[in-house]
């Protein structure tokens, strides 16, 4: 059973997550932090940067691995997760860019890039704390419904619903890439501590299915129930179906 923390606002939940992660980094400066993209964790990263500035948190030895990346966007595309992570995490926190890893979605061979990413994570000793969002269809990372719960980092096809949800970052849905490289559900479950953030009524059903429904590949987020250390930070609307 996950530890579920419900706050009144996304800001309050994000601040709480940031305080916890900052304390973990302070205790263990060589932490390997897994980061999610999307709208949900943006405030958490801003809050972490604020704590770093205020308390002088040492992030010089922090290593970061992103969950996923689109395949086929040109390097430097502003909506590539490499760029999102650079803006929201690397630059915001003043991290050493050589310690920040994102799957190479512009590689000539994305299948090889996915394997190489998994090996790079292993060589780093795995992720200690993984920040997660959840898709309205229950996806974690870009593991769409139907993803094997033991899957590793690989190339996946994005569902229409995910491409539609992410069309807000592109001009139109047809410009959202159709493929991605994502850490597998099994890869995510290897992290030491999973910190799930979910905000808004649109996530309520996915959150309830993930935390309280049957464990099934139809809801990849339900794999969190297989992990011994999960903290879910929700706002009231996202917790409404629990
Ligand atoms: C995106 C990302 C996920 C993210 C999820 C929810 O497509 N690949 O890592 O957690 O979908 O996104 P958002 O936080 O924008 O709702």
Automatic annotation (TrEMBL):
Keywords: Allosteric enzyme, Carbohydrate metabolism, Hydrolase. The active site is at residues 68, 137, 139, 144. Pfam families: Glucosamine_iso (PF01182). It catalyses: alpha-D-glucosamine 6-phosphate + H2O = beta-D-fructose 6-phosphate + NH4(+). Allosterically activated by N-acetylglucosamine 6-phosphate (GlcNAc6P). It is an enzyme of class 3 (hydrolase). SUPFAM superfamilies: NagB/RpiA/CoA transferase-like. Transmembrane segments: none annotated. Its EC number is 3.5.99.6. PROSITE patterns: GLC_GALNAC_ISOMERASE. Pathway: Amino-sugar metabolism; N-acetylneuraminate degradation; D-fructose 6-phosphate from N-acetylneuraminate: step 5/5. Belongs to the glucosamine/galactosamine-6-phosphate isomerase family. NagB subfamily. This is Glucosamine-6-phosphate deaminase. It comes from Agromyces tropicus. The lineage of its organism: Bacteria, Bacillati, Actinomycetota, Actinomycetes, Micrococcales.
């Amino acid at each position: 059973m996950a530890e579920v923390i419900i706050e009144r606002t996304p800001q309050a939940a994000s601040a709480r997550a940031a305080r916890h992660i900052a304390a973990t980094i302070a205790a263990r400066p060589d932490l390997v932090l897994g980061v999610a993209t999307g709208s949900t964790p943006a405030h958490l990263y801003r809050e972490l940067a604020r704590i770093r500035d205020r308390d002088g948190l040492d992030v010089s030895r922090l290593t970061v691995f992103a969950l996923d990346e689109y395949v086929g966007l040109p390097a430097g595309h502003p909506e590539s997760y490499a760029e999102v992570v650079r803006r929201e995490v690397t630059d915001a926190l003043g991290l050493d860019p050589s310690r920040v890893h994102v799957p190479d979605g512009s590689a000539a061979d994305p299948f090889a890039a996915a394997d190489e990413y998994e090996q790079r994570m292993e060589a780093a000793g795995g992720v200690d704390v993984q920040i997660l969002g959840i898709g309205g269809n229950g996806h974690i990372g870009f593991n769409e419904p139907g993803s094997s719960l033991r899957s590793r980092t690989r190339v996946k096809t994005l569902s229409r619903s995910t491409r539609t949800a992410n069309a807000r970052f592109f001009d139109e849905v047809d410009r959202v890439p159709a493929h991605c490289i994502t850490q597998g559900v099994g890869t995510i479950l290897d992290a030491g501590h999973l910190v799930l953030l979910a905000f808004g009524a649109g996530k309520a059903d996915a959150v309830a299915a993930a935390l309280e429904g049957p464990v099934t590949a139809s809801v990849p987020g339900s794999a969190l129930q297989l992990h011994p250390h999960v903290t879910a930070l929700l706002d009231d609307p996202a917790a409404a179906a629990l």
